[in-house]
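yo

u said u wanted the structure for the complex thing, so here. seqs first:
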Amino acid sequence: MEVLFVALIGLFFTAAVYLMLSKFTIRILLGIVLLGNGVNLLLFTAGRITREVPPIIPADTSTLAAGAANPLPQALILTAIVISFSFFAFLLVLTWRAFEELGTDSTDEMRLAEPLDEPLPPMGY
Amino acid sequence: MASSFASIDLAAAMVTTAPALSDWLVILPTALMILTGATLMMIRKSVRLHAVIAITALALLVVLDALLLWQVSTRGPVSMTMGGWLPPFGISFTADIFGAVMALAAAIAALLAAIYSLRDIDASGLRHGFFAFLMLLMAGVSGAFLTGDIFNLYVWFEVLLISSFGLLILGSEPKQIEGALKYAILNLIGTTLFLITVGYLYAIFGTLNMADIARKAGSIRGMTEDAAPLMTLTALFVLAFCMKAAAFPVNFWLPASYHTPRITVSALFGGLLTKVGIYALIRVTIMLLPVEREALSLVIATSAVLTMILGALGALAQNDLRRMVGYVVIVGIGNMLAGVAIGSSVAVSGAILYALHSIVTMTALYLVLGEAGRLTGTFELSRLGGLWGRAPWFSAGSLALVLAASGLPPFSGLWPKIMLLKASLDIGAWWLAAAILVSAFLVTLALARVFLLAYWRPAPGGEGEAATATDWRTALPIGALATLVLVFGLYPEPLLALSQAAADGLADPSAYIRSVFPGGLVP
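structre next:
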């Protein structure tokens, strides 16, 4: 089971890196979404994968049943999902504004803050 | 039902006694900033109140951090675990000298920058929540310095990142949106890398509490068959934190964005944010994974040299003052990385001292150049001039900060540079020492040229219409920061002792571990 998940995570990361290497902002954003989901799967796999034993202590005992699911990765993933979702929402709006203001979605043409023809500082007094 | 619960021994999992009153100090800085930030959002229409509330809260933050530092330096690390769960199950906040002194320096820089912002941030900036974002930024920064849990550290990174986005685009100029887009995407990838590493760390250690990791690292390293991939882990941590700290080759987001926002925001970013990355790097590589850091030291040192030299060359090539300071920030990061690469006691305390110096000086340098730009109406070196005649006192303060940033006596930049030089010569790394000296020389050239052109040279286009003179809102922060830089340059003993104690606490974390696990070092 773990091997399957690891292969899946590798696939997510590969696709994410490929998309993020693009110079168009929308593809970069899609890459970031894939990367975020890949990380969530990774956290899930890192914390032991088991089936159908909830991490709840029965009424008459004081310890967890053997092979119970690990609740911590789920808490971590929940945090990571909330953060990556809100960041993605912000980035989408930012990209849209950038497209409106700059008239391009190609990072090569975003040269307003770092102009190519900026003069050198004065060479003499 | 009640009787079946009564038989469970809660003391095995929960903290049953209330924490001592003084322990609350470790959580108060972060809590204060979050509460103030939330309050400012609730009263976002009454912008007149924002500045008063925010600056009072920041002054209180300085007091709290100073008390915390005093407490930590007299009685050892302080720890508090959330929710009453026994560590490592609850999230611990643990302050040692390193964390407390960084938090104090950051709070002072933020307070002075907030006073400067009274003049710099206009009504529209206030309406869009400048002070609310500033409070949340400081919540993230304080949380990152004081937390004792590595996943929690990731959360604080994200808190300060999302508030920095808000500050960066204040004003909504096309330039800012472009800078923010590059900053946001690259920093988000950096923190995602950090999260990936935290996932691996949890898979290897089964814990996220830093004190717990520190005490387990030895036994996990010792497992000979089925060796744990600690090298992979450390390499990923170094990459993720170098990206946050803006070390070469993952630093191109900094010169692309730091010159676009309002000058107060640039000052806060240049002073605080990269130093959080350095803090995390030192905390993880020096305290948690020292053996693996040793193996990677050549890689870190190479990155440090390239960061210093290329940053200094970048500073020399800039015509825009704000972009030039961005490169000066990067040179400082290279110096601190050199300390991490060497890893000896002198080197680490040198890096910590450099970080403290850099928080104060970089904030001040941005504020000074912002004021110079306001007085002359331009940030371009080719058009600046005549400041000496126009504002002599301001020019004197600027000279102090320019010399401090170059690392010249009698200002605070000298001492960390000397410590780092000594540490690199001690291990025979003459090339590292040479890089520190050459980059300091190039930065001196770049900054001295600013002083020559902007201050001494008569204004190229004649005296333009006189801008409004410096008043207390800008003079107080610049004067206070210049005084700090001078005082700690002339009388560095207290800071030297503090950074030495901080480095000792990192090299031997047993006191840190004891504050989280009072029972002892053995699990």
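The mean pLDDT of chain B is 89. Chain B touches chain A through 47 residues (CB under 8 Å).
cya
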